[in-house]
Fold:
Amino acid sequence: MRSILVSHHPKSAGVHPALQSFADECGAIAVRLLAYMGALALVVMAAATVFDGLEFDLSSEPAAKAGWSVASRSHPAFAVSQFDSSGKTVSYEIMRHPDGGRKDILRWTSPGEPPVAELELYRPGAEAERAGPPAADIAGRMDPGGVREVVGEGIIDSKFGPVALMGFADRLKDNKRCLGFMKTLEVANLRISGWSCQGDGLPARRAAIACTLNRLVLLTAGNEPRLQEAFAQADLKRAGCISGAALSAISADWVTGAQNPLLRGSL
Structure:
């Protein structure tokens, strides 16, 4: 009877010890696999959370870096006809802003020298709402190396109407006494601005600016009929440039010369 009871013990019910050990090992492996899978699921969830955050940051990054860039594939929209640049070459650069603005910039310079004149045709977009004062922008272009106070230098007449002039208050530091200018055509959404150091003395520089504006022409208006209409109306009022003899007479009598129709305005 004792031997019969021993033969019916669970561990000796026909299961080979090797099989029993294999079954125990499989159970242990299964437990470890479940633990690994749980840990892996946690890692995946954490990675997904981090990826969502990175995706959000990347979507907002272009707005922070957006700004003016060179539009190399755009075609010039303006030109200055019959301009006497006295040996200077003209460069044409087009800048675009993601918010819709466009700047056509003409500069006159000699090889290896800084520009002596600049003309900017700015068609503002939504970015204009965040821009600073136009006078400060012109002053920065005239003197990129510093911040100087700007004062009015009278007005001149042009085919676009009266144009305001400006210069630096500390004239003693400005050997050439360059002049800046600005004219806004609201109906055409166009701001014409720039500066000039051309000519000997203020009368010559005022005349050079008036001549540049009078010879400014529109090459293409694109889908802006108001711009085309504004230039068509301005061309009806276009005047010629002052000759050398007339300019000498103006320089000899600056007070009288300031009343000349092409150089109208007070100092």
Summary: Confidence is low (pLDDT under 50) at residues 4-9, 55-65, 248-267. Strands lie at 69-70, 78-80, 89-96, 102-109, 117-123, 150-156, 163-168, 179-185, 190-196, 216-218. The chain is about 40% helix and 20% strand.
